Amino acid sequence: xxxxxxxxxxxxxxxxxxLSLSKDVFRCVLGLGLLGSAANLILFxxxxxxxxxxxxxxxxxxxxxxxxxxxxxxxxxxxIVIGFALVCYSLALALxxxxxxxxxxxxxxxxxxxLPTDPVKPPYNGAxxxxxxxxxxxxxxxxxx
Amino acid sequence: xxxxxxxxxxxxxxxxxxxxxxxxxxxxxxxxxxLGIAVFFACAVALVxxxxxxxxxxxxxxxxxxxxxxxxxxxxxxxxxxxxTATMGLASLVFMGSDADTEPKHPLMLPLLHGVLVGxxxxxxxxxxxxxxxxxxxMLICAVGLFSMGGRVDQLDSAFKYFVLxxxxxxxxxxxxxxxxxxxxxxxFTGLSQAATQLSPWVxxxxxxxxxxxxxxxxxxxxxxxxxxxxxxxxxxxxxxxFAGLLTKVGVYAVLxxxxxxxxxxxxxxxxxxxxxxxGTMLFGVLGAAYHWDMRRILAFHIVSQIGYxxxxxxxxxxxxxxxTLFYTLHHIVVKANLFLIAAMxxxxxxxxxxxxxxxxxxxxxxxxxxxxxxxLSLVGIPPLSGFWSKLLVLQEAIAQGRVAxxxxxxxxxxxxxxxMVKIWMEAFxxxxxxxxxxxxxxxxxWPAWLATVFLALITLSISLNPQMLVEYAQAAAxxxxxx
Lengths: 145, 484
Prior knowledge:
By secondary structure, chain A is an all-alpha fold. Helix content of chain A is about 55%, strand content about 0%. Chain A contains four helices and no strands. Helices cover about 75% and strands about 0% of the residues of chain B. Chain B has helices spanning about 5-20, 25-50, 75-95, 110-125, 130-150, 155-185, 190-195, 200-220, 225-230, 235-260, 270-290, 295-315, 320-350, 360-365, 365-380, 385-400, 405-430, 445-465, 465-480, and strands at about 55-60, 70-75. Chain B is globular. The relative contact order of chain B is 0.10. The interface between A and B is large, with 49 and 56 residues.
């Protein structure tokens, strides 16, 4: 059982990393969601796996013997909720990103870090990537008038 | 069980709710947010007082008792970090009252800002590994919210990069937490430190190594810091200062907590590796900064570089090293946030963040030039400023342990840091403005910005001129670390 799960985790992590390394923004987000599921599986396995035993301490004993430890299951529940929220958010973010830039190619997403044109000097970030400077907008307004 | 122990989470959380409900009324929202931060600050002072009086605040939830229920435990280290969190929150909120950032303020900005404080406060307060993961996620989701809130394309772009790389970090942490629980059966810090002594060396190397990998992504250590300089410069100025001060330091705190406290002494190989990572972080951070001309990007790379010094203190694996780490972290948070705030004021006066397009400010605003020099020279480590004392503490211990290579590189990096700071000063203040028609903007509302930056500079000066008090506190804090 544990080897089957280990194999599953291996396959899921591999495909998740492959997807999230993709230059397609949407695939990248899917990969992250998948990686979250793999992490949840690992967390789930950390508290023993047993199929049939109920998680009840037998009469006269003080520790849970063969049954699965319920604590990691509670942790997994928490992690699933958090992961779900993050995936929802990242999908919204990716959608907005694709809509406002018109591209889903991660190589083309260089708005925050423009590519250098000069071999030595760093590129100018661009005034459109800064808040509008009031004095400048006043001056240009006067010029227009 | 004390209510005070819960306050680092409860107070900002209540402020989040209050400011969200009041989002239609800007005035009321600002008032509530100041009220929240004032209460947070008062609670933080009380926490420091009780931790320093050897009565650390503690709370265990759900009636399970100490090693099983989720525990909040605030010792000297945590209390000092919580106090500095409250101070930075206050400075950032005061700065927000100025027009140094001219973008329209989103009504959800204040709730999310307090949300970040919830995450940071929770990370410092908790004594439970899984709970730490939860606070990391709280911090992450609020941070991405603040990144993408402005809606400019570069902000969305940087939000995406920040999000993807940080989610890798938190998922690594989740996996590492699962592994730690599987091996030890504990999540509570005290329980873990007792169980960790039973582990075989290679299991413990694997576990702590996994945790470290996750924390180092958060701390922005070499070679995992790519997300930081790629994204930070798109944030609005007051938020940027808060992030620069606090977020990476949570990762550093987690490294200190795990390698200097819970798993101390961890396998020697890990400390050795951490030391070289720290040296690489310093060096590559400062080289990145030397390349850039945008003030925010220079300073963002300097966050990375300074993280290296802080991690070096942990890597020395001694009480003096841990004390140096705590002292360095506290000094660095104040200085770094102040530099970003002053950079925003320079922008407001001159009209650009790029040093090639500005200048001539010293003639018109000499006081700002001098105000900039206080944190800038402190960052470099010029005596008698606070950076000198913190570097002295770290390097003294490094030399005492015979770590010559680390010391030499650390000193070289200070010189390069001086180069960057002098570059900003010469270009922004000393040289004349390249645009001859440039004049200072006629109307600015910068008094809150002056208030915040002078306040932070005064903190730096008071640490500089009287370091003994903080050094003693840090030594007392380091003394209690690792003694579970």
